[in-house]
């Protein structure tokens, strides 16, 4: 009957932590309690544990966003409750940081096995081919971004998982209002990435209405981080400019200097996922929300970076990514997220540049002691 807890003594100890207000450990009570009641308590306790600490699987977790999200979620829910997965060979520090498994998003059986064996409650689906990479390999993008999504939707339906799938500014197109872009508007993107993300938003909403699936999605702006290199998106220049500023002092930008796009610092992005996943279902009026933090052009961020690295040289050489950027929102309207679940960003442009320079200066071992820094 008592499986997980080897002895009554162990179980009593655990129940006492679970019900600290109840005097379960009094000797008289211990001797009179019956095994059936104990078993019921144990089941109830395990359900409570689960409800308090979800077991989470992150797909594509070795990308720009996944590693940081795994760290944040592990701090909150416990290391063992977060399973990182991807198809690439993980660095040593990932293996040492907690559970990591191979999982190809196209292999339904393997995913099913993981969900069952690891008793997963939440699935965070980060595997994707991003905008620029997707255009360079359309058949693979269709498989990973569309077939992969079908797999996680079906798994989540079958095992009643809470499912998070990020969307993007790339889910809009030239015919959408661009400044600002509201949640509900025309969505006619012209990249395979954008089309697959609109597909994900609509399929998730369909599964929600048809099967009651707890599907949640946030449309992220371009995300800027110092931890991992960006994964082939159109907003990558806004990460690269910091690396270049602190290494060669020269940056070649593939967008025109006046190209305005919405952006966000990674800490705000990761916090948005954690906060959004915890909002009670009935509080959400939409299944997909825009979230916004700041909006800038290459020349505006370069001006801000030059406050720390005045000698930074920049050349502008627009390539195929310019056309993609020209079809994307310039500013996101995220009033619904702010109203429905209190979304708020912390980092604006000057806060972002300060924290990125601090992080990378530490990494490249460059001292930051003066007001202006000459590298
Ligand atoms: N980074 C951004 O600026 C940004 C902005 C908006 C939305 N998003 C979304 O956030 C999510 C994560 O983005 P990211 O920047 O970390 O992407 P990334 O490209 O850095 O990482 C994606 C990961 O998916 C993995 N992957 C590829 N094929 C796979 C397969 N068949 N099975 C399993 N994994 C596979 C890759 O190995 C990679 O580690 C994506 O869905 C992306 O669309 C990102």
From TrEMBL:
InterPro entries: Epimerase_deHydtase (IPR001509), NAD(P)-bd_dom_sf (IPR036291), NAD(P)_epim/dehydratase (IPR051225). One of its GO terms (biological process) is L-threonine catabolic process. Pathway: Amino-acid degradation; L-threonine degradation via oxydo-reductase pathway; glycine from L-threonine: step 1/2. One of its GO terms (molecular function) is L-threonine 3-dehydrogenase activity. It is an enzyme of class 1 (oxidoreductase). It comes from the Eukaryota. Catalyzes the NAD(+)-dependent oxidation of L-threonine to 2-amino-3-ketobutyrate, mediating L-threonine catabolism. This is L-threonine 3-dehydrogenase, mitochondrial.
């Amino acid at each position: 009957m008592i499986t997980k807890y080897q002895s009554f003594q162990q179980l009593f100890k655990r129940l006492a932590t679970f019900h600290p207000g109840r005097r379960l450990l009094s000797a008289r009570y211990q001797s009179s309690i019956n095994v059936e009641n104990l078993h019921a308590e144990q089941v109830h306790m395990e359900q409570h544990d689960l409800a308090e600490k979800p077991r989470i699987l992150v797909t594509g977790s070795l990308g720009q966003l996944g590693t940081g999200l795994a760290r944040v979620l592990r701090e909150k829910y416990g290391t063992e409750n977060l399973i990182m997965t991807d198809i690439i060979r993980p660095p040593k520090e990932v293996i040492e940081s907690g559970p990591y498994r191979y999982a190809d998003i196209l292999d339904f059986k393997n995913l099913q096995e993981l969900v069952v064996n690891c008793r997963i409650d939440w699935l965070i689906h980060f595997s994707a081919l991003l905008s620029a990479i997707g255009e360079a390999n359309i058949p693979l993008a269709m498989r990973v971004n569309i077939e992969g999504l079908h797999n996680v939707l079906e798994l989540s339906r079958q095992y009643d998982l809470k499912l998070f799938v990020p969307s993007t500014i790339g889910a809009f197109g030239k015919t959408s209002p661009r400044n600002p872009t509201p949640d509900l508007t025309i969505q006619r993107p012209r990249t395979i990435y954008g089309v697959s993300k609109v597909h994900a938003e609509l399929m998730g909403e369909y599964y929600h209405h048809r099967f009651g699936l707890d599907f949640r999605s946030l449309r992220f702006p371009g995300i800027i981080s110092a931890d991992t290199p960006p994964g082939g998106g159109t907003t990558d220049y806004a990460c690269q400019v910091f690396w270049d500023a602190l290494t060669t002092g020269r940056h070649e930008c593939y967008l025109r200097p006046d190209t305005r796009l919405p952006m966000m610092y990674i800490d705000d992005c990761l916090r948005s996922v954690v906060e959004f996943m915890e909002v009670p279902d009935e509080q959400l009026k939409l299944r997909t929300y825009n979230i916004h933090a700041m909006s800038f052009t290459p020349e505006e961020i370069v001006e801000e970076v030059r406050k720390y690295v005045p000698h930074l040289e920049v050349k502008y050489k627009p390539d195929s990514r310019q056309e993609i950027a020209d079809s994307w929102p310039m500013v996101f309207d995220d009033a619904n997220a702010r109203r429905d679940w209190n979304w708020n960003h912390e980092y604006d442009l000057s806060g972002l540049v300060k924290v990125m320079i601090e992080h990378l200066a530490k990494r490249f071992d460059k001292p930051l002691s003066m007001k202006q820094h000459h590298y």
